[in-house]
Amino acid sequence: MKNLKRFVLLILLLLTLVILSSLFNHHRKLTIKFSNFYLLSENLYIDSAIERSKHSDISILVQNAKQRIISKFGSFSSSPIIIIAGTSQRAKAYGTNDFGSATAFPWDEYVVLGPKGYNIDVLAHELLHAELAYRLGYCLREFKLPIWLDEGIGMQVDYRKKYDIDIRLVNEKEIKRVKSINKRPIFNPNHFWSGGEKQVVLNYQISKALVSGILNQDLNSSLYTMIDKVKDGKAFEDVFTINKTLHNR
Ligand SMILES: [Zn+2]
Prior knowledge:
Layout: H1 2-25, H2 27-30, E1 38-41, E2 44-46, H3 55-73, E3 81-84, H4 88-93, E4 100-104, E5 109-113, H5 120-136, H6 138-144, H7 147-154, H8 172-179, H9 197-216, H10 223-231, H11 236-239, H12 244-247
Parallel strand pairs: 2-3, 3-5
Antiparallel strand pairs: 1-2, 4-5
The site of zinc ion has 4 residues, from helix 5 and helix 7.
């Protein structure tokens, strides 16, 4: 009993530390309402450095990116706060690179786009991360969702050719390496995004092809149905897997 109490306390402490470090790293996102960013429409904030003449293009881009997800998976239910940064420095201050990223807190999801990320592939990818976080809830997404699966799902709405690969030509060892990349390495930078551009592109290519193979094998099972199964207690690895019986038919 004592050990169980200690274990629960340790988990609570770890969770508090993760949330506090997240708050510290992302405090600018949380205070976006009080910044000089322009609120273009609900939850869409645009850097004051971006000319007004570009506002309607950005608004259309956001609508189109959401529509791409709806066309592919049937719906888009979350309302992430979207922050469009006008410069590299501003993107960095808001916790992202020149392209963009998605972050989830227990109460909200945030998508930040950098100056090179104003395109439907990048935005749809990041919005799908936010949708996934919304559907899974903070703890499942933060502590259980494998990184190859998170990125592989995001890549399903990213149609850039450079991320396509024939998975049959990829060495089994490489696939194992990508599937075993830890989401939260304590001491090292995350291996998914290290090793140079070629390596990072390969990591995305493998993740995209793996998820595509899993989703395409059974037309009766949609992405969101699979997410619901995980929410009901099944392990990600058991739900998002190649179904041998389907393959042997
Ligand atoms: Zn991603």
